[in-house]
């Protein structure tokens, strides 16, 4: 038996939804349902009786179909399409979904493909409406009123109007379309029957200014007409105040471009008033360390400077008895421009505290002053500096040490030890005691805190952390003796 | 000078900046709550809106203007350089605010993209730019999109203010290498640009990490590189991009093919860079960001990308040994490397293959060009021939001969 289901207009999604639920619960097969919107488009059987199945909770019963959320959204959008078969399609899909909830995931299912295509076309039409509606200002009794004439392709006015409320709540506006019109009075959104172009104002003084902008922002040297038309199809042009310029701008583009290319460069005008050079005033009484810090920024002794943000120099009291040397700045240090501010620096701070080493009396620096890394998506992966980079950067460390003249250098990790001593050092063998040297300050070798951060095993981490703290205690002793 | 004339000069001066995005910021609206008055004016919806398109194919989303095109810098590639004879103009703060609101009310634009020539000092210039944004937000309750250009070396306080009012901040690296910048834009300091980007990243991340912290450029930062004004090749350009994305978490790097300008400099002859080169760079940029390709893989065929063929197909043709792959078994990463399969399609294939053995008719339903993927992809009803994949002329067969540019409307 054929079931005639009248809907309240072509965009009556709620009515379709209520009726469709009831029909599915009743087990009515798709081929025996005829949907009628009252606008004659889908109504092959004359005026339909107003006798939609009333969806009461009782009639839905225990077999009330549970459909995936994705379907509700898909249907709410796709049903606004002007395609006359849309109600049948979505009802068929609903019946199939009631039997197998998963079929929406089958992107090659013909019903799913069609439903998604309808929804996509409607989404695009809605989006284009938000883009291409052009208001014209008229003065009304209650102040300015902004009125637009727009011709959407699908039944989207009611579904798109809330966008204009969210955006233009502070204005009084009306959007007139052939099928339906939307009006906002500053407090309430109301819909009325369709209008005609003649009902809308035929101009706005500001459109001349807008056209000036449109013509000026266009670059004649890069004509890409197809790209423009793909996003702004011709069917929208008749309601866009800027569209009459498109033809003339295209027509003159090649002449304007060849004139630019052919133009003989004019004698340069005497420059605008050039900006007085603002020299950054150096901090007063600059110390030798401050001078080095400025100098290192221009270091080009190895290629690491090019991809780094800045050189990261040492930091701490100029009269420090202890200098701690790390490997190189990491991501955070490179960004901030200060050493030991990243995760490894934080771990060092903790260990120093546990070892009784007063962090504020220690000068911290790195063996290599620029960050060596490899870009990987949104992150920079640390790369260990090689012997040439360590050697290229060594003079900076030597000059730092010469300026501070500490009694102890703590080298954390192989790179730091190599930079201080000038040759490879085995950390495992050298650590654990202060090494006296004839040609420089005493040396304490230990691991780099990032080694601890990388250990996967929690127990091992604790053991190694304790050893690290033990090593730093030796430094704390020196600090206290000083 | 009347407003229209100023607009003509200052929009013309701004058009070489390719950025137009109005997306990715926080959602805001001005709809009243329960019978109250409107809260401010305007909205942002997450996705951007392109309100018009010019015949250069570029979207018009924002009112993109300079506050002034007077400039103390003498960058050879720029129409606004100090020594250029281009006519000069300057908007007042109120004029830009008024234009933005007037255009916005008529639904011409999503908001404002304001930049400026550098006048007097970096701080003075930045302050003028910030005043426009502050007036829009505080005097007019404007909730639309604002993109501000950051002036290098402006003070941290001004940058804080800019980030408070703007959705996006940007600062242009202009050229891929420090050496090129030194040669063509002697007053610009490449290192200062990087330090500024680093500072922006820090503030953006702080603002994201803590809900209570001050708002700071929720749509992130971006930059632009001019392509073809210097001798840098595509590999250098892409390496710079990769470093910028990784180091400063940029939302976008825009590439702008060097194009003829009025009032060119005698010191930099107008060599027009092919628009196709710019297009290939964007494709390569996408491959790096969304398809798991490295710069090295993209440029293993040479420092310049092949203008005839998109970089993904070019890579596949250089790596034919990796193909064909089986649509029924291949991983997401492998499928992403098949020429002709985009990200969305790959996700649909992964979902669909749980239901059916994928045939060419299924791919056609997913709107895939079966001819393009056929040599590389094994389907339930199609096994690519190794001999075909090995053919010398495969490139010519896959790449359509250049069409005449469509001029008809």
From TrEMBL, chain A:
<dbReference type="Pfam" id="PF03167">
    <property type="entry name" value="UDG"/>
</dbReference>
<dbReference type="InterPro" id="IPR036895">
    <property type="entry name" value="Uracil-DNA_glycosylase-like_sf"/>
</dbReference>
<keyword id="KW-0479">Metal-binding</keyword>
<feature type="domain" description="Uracil-DNA glycosylase-like">
    <location>
        <begin position="313"/>
        <end position="473"/>
    </location>
</feature>
<comment type="similarity">
    <text>Belongs to the uracil-DNA glycosylase (UDG) superfamily. Type 4 (UDGa) family.</text>
</comment>
<keyword id="KW-0408">Iron</keyword>
<keyword id="KW-0411">Iron-sulfur</keyword>
<dbReference type="GO" id="GO:0006281">
    <property type="term" value="P:DNA repair"/>
</dbReference>
<dbReference type="GO" id="GO:0097506">
    <property type="term" value="F:deaminated base DNA N-glycosylase activity"/>
</dbReference>
<keyword id="KW-0234">DNA repair</keyword>
<dbReference type="InterPro" id="IPR023875">
    <property type="entry name" value="DNA_repair_put"/>
</dbReference>
<dbReference type="InterPro" id="IPR005122">
    <property type="entry name" value="Uracil-DNA_glycosylase-like"/>
</dbReference>
<feature type="region of interest" description="Disordered">
    <location>
        <begin position="45"/>
        <end position="64"/>
    </location>
</feature>
<protein>
    <recommendedName>
        <fullName>Type-4 uracil-DNA glycosylase</fullName>
    </recommendedName>
</protein>
<dbReference type="InterPro" id="IPR005273">
    <property type="entry name" value="Ura-DNA_glyco_family4"/>
</dbReference>
<keyword id="KW-0227">DNA damage</keyword>
<dbReference type="InterPro" id="IPR025404">
    <property type="entry name" value="DUF4130"/>
</dbReference>
<keyword id="KW-0378">Hydrolase</keyword>
<dbReference type="GO" id="GO:0046872">
    <property type="term" value="F:metal ion binding"/>
</dbReference>
<keyword id="KW-0004">4Fe-4S</keyword>
<dbReference type="InterPro" id="IPR051536">
    <property type="entry name" value="UDG_Type-4/5"/>
</dbReference>
<dbReference type="Pfam" id="PF13566">
    <property type="entry name" value="DUF4130"/>
</dbReference>
TrEMBL record, chain B:
<dbReference type="InterPro" id="IPR013785">
    <property type="entry name" value="Aldolase_TIM"/>
</dbReference>
<keyword id="KW-0408">Iron</keyword>
<dbReference type="Pfam" id="PF14520">
    <property type="entry name" value="HHH_5"/>
</dbReference>
<keyword id="KW-0479">Metal-binding</keyword>
<dbReference type="InterPro" id="IPR058240">
    <property type="entry name" value="rSAM_sf"/>
</dbReference>
<dbReference type="InterPro" id="IPR051675">
    <property type="entry name" value="Endo/Exo/Phosphatase_dom_1"/>
</dbReference>
<dbReference type="GO" id="GO:0051536">
    <property type="term" value="F:iron-sulfur cluster binding"/>
</dbReference>
<keyword id="KW-0411">Iron-sulfur</keyword>
<dbReference type="InterPro" id="IPR006638">
    <property type="entry name" value="Elp3/MiaA/NifB-like_rSAM"/>
</dbReference>
<dbReference type="InterPro" id="IPR023874">
    <property type="entry name" value="DNA_rSAM_put"/>
</dbReference>
<dbReference type="GO" id="GO:0046872">
    <property type="term" value="F:metal ion binding"/>
</dbReference>
<dbReference type="InterPro" id="IPR007197">
    <property type="entry name" value="rSAM"/>
</dbReference>
<keyword id="KW-0949">S-adenosyl-L-methionine</keyword>
<dbReference type="GO" id="GO:0003824">
    <property type="term" value="F:catalytic activity"/>
</dbReference>
<protein>
    <submittedName>
        <fullName>Putative DNA modification/repair radical SAM protein</fullName>
    </submittedName>
</protein>
<dbReference type="Pfam" id="PF04055">
    <property type="entry name" value="Radical_SAM"/>
</dbReference>
<feature type="domain" description="Elp3/MiaA/NifB-like radical SAM core">
    <location>
        <begin position="61"/>
        <end position="284"/>
    </location>
</feature>
<dbReference type="InterPro" id="IPR010994">
    <property type="entry name" value="RuvA_2-like"/>
</dbReference>
């Amino acid at each position: 038996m054929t079931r005639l289901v009248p809907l309240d207009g072509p965009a009556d999604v709620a009515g379709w939804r209520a009726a469709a639920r009831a029909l599915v619960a009743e087990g009515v097969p798709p081929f025996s349902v005829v949907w009628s919107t009252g606008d004659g488009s889908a109504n092959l059987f004359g005026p339909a009786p107003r006798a939609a199945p009333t969806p009461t909770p009782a009639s839905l019963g225990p077999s009330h179909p549970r459909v995936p959320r994705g379907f509700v959204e898909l249907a709410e959008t796709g049903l606004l399409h002007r395609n006359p078969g849309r109600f049948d399609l979505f009802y068929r899909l609903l019946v199939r979904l009631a039997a197998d909830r998963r079929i929406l995931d089958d992107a090659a299912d013909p019903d799913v493909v069609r439903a998604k295509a309808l929804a996509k076309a409607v989404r695009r039409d809605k989006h284009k409406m938000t883009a291409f509606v052009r208001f014209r200002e008229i003065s009304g009794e209650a102040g300015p009123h902004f009125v637009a004439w727009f011709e959407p392709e699908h039944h989207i006015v009611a579904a798109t109007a809330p966008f204009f409320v969210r955006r233009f709540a502070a204005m009084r506006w009306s959007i007139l379309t052939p099928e339906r019109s939307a009006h906002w009075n500053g407090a309430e959104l109301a819909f009325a029957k369709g209008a005609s172009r003649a009902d809308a104002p035929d101009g706005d003084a500001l459109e001349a200014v807008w056209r000036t902008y449109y013509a000026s922002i266009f670059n004649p040297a890069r004509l890409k007409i197809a790209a423009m038309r793909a996003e702004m199809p011709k069917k929208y042009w008749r309601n866009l105040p800027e569209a009459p310029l498109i033809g003339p701008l295209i027509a003159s583009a090649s002449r304007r471009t060849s004139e630019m290319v052919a133009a003989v460069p004019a004698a340069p005008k005497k420059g605008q008033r050039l900006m007085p050079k603002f020299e950054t005033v150096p901090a007063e009484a600059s110390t030798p360390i401050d001078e080095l810090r400025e100098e290192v920024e221009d270091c080009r002794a190895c290629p690491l400077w090019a991809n780094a943000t800045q050189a990261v120099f040492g930091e701490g009291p100029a009269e420090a008895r202890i200098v701690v040397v790390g490997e190189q700045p990491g991501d955070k240090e490179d960004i901030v421009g200060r050493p030991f501010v990243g995760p490894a620096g934080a771990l060092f701070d903790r260990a120093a505290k546990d070892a009784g080493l007063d962090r504020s009396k220690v000068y911290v620096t790195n063996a290599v002053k620029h960050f060596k890394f490899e870009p990987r998506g949104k992150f920079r992966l640390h790369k260990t500096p090689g012997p040439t980079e360590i050697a290229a950067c060594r003079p900076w460390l030597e000059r730092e040490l010469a300026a501070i003249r500490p009694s102890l250098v703590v080298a954390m990790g192989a790179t730091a030890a190599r930079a201080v001593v000038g040759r490879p050092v085995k950390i495992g063998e050298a650590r654990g005691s202060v090494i006296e040297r004839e040609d420089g300050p005493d040396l304490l070798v230990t691991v780099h805190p990032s080694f601890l951060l990388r250990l996967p095993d929690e127990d091992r981490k604790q053991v190694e952390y304790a050893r690290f703290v033990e090593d730093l205690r030796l430094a704390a002793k020196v600090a206290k003796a000083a | 000078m009347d407003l229209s004339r100023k607009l003509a000069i200052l929009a013309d001066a701004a058009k070489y900046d390719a950025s137009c995005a109005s997306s990715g910021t926080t959602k805001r609206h001005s709809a009243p709550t329960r019978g109250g008055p409107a809260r401010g004016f305007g909205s942002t919806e997450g996705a951007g809106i392109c309100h018009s398109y010019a015949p250069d194919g570029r979207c018009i989303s924002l009112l993109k203007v300079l506050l002034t095109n007077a400039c103390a810098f003498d960058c050879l590639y720029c129409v606004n350089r100090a020594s250029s004879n281009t006519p000069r103009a300057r908007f007042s703060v109120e004029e830009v605010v008024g234009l933005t609101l007037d255009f916005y009310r008529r639904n011409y634009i999503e908001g404002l993209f304001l930049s400026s020539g550098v006048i007097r000092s970096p701080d003075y210039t930045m302050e003028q730019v910030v005043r426009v944004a502050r007036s829009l937000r505080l005097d007019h309750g404007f909730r639309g999109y604002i993109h501000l250009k950051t002036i290098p070396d402006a003070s941290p306080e001004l940058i804080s203010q800019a980030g408070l009012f703007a959705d996006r901040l940007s600062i242009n690296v202009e050229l891929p290498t420090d050496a090129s910048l030194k040669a063509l834009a002697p007053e610009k300091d490449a290192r200062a640009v990087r330090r500024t980007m680093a500072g922006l990243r820090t503030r953006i991340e702080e603002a994201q990490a803590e809900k209570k912290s001050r708002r700071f450029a929720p749509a992130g930062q971006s930059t632009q590189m001019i392509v073809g004004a210097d001798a840098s090749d595509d590999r250098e350009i892409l390496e710079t991009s990769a470093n910028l994305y990784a180091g400063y978490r940029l939302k976008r790097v825009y590439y702008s093919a060097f194009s003829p300008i009025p009032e060119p400099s005698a010191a930099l002859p107008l060599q027009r860079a092919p628009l196709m080169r710019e297009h290939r760079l964007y494709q390569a940029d996408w491959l790096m960001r969304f398809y798991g390709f490295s710069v090295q893989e993209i440029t293993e065929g040479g420092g310049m990308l092949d203008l005839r063929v998109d970089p993904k197909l070019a890579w596949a043709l250089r790596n034919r040994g990796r193909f064909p792959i089986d649509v029924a078994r291949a991983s997401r990463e492998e499928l992403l490397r098949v020429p002709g399969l985009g990200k969305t399609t790959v996700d649909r294939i992964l979902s669909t293959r749980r239901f059916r053995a994928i045939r060419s008719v299924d791919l056609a339903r997913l709107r895939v060009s079966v001819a393009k993927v056929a040599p590389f992809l094994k389907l339930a009803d199609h096994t690519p021939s190794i001999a075909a994949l090995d053919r010398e002329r495969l490139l010519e067969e896959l790449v359509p001969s250049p069409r005449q540019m469509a001029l008809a409307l």
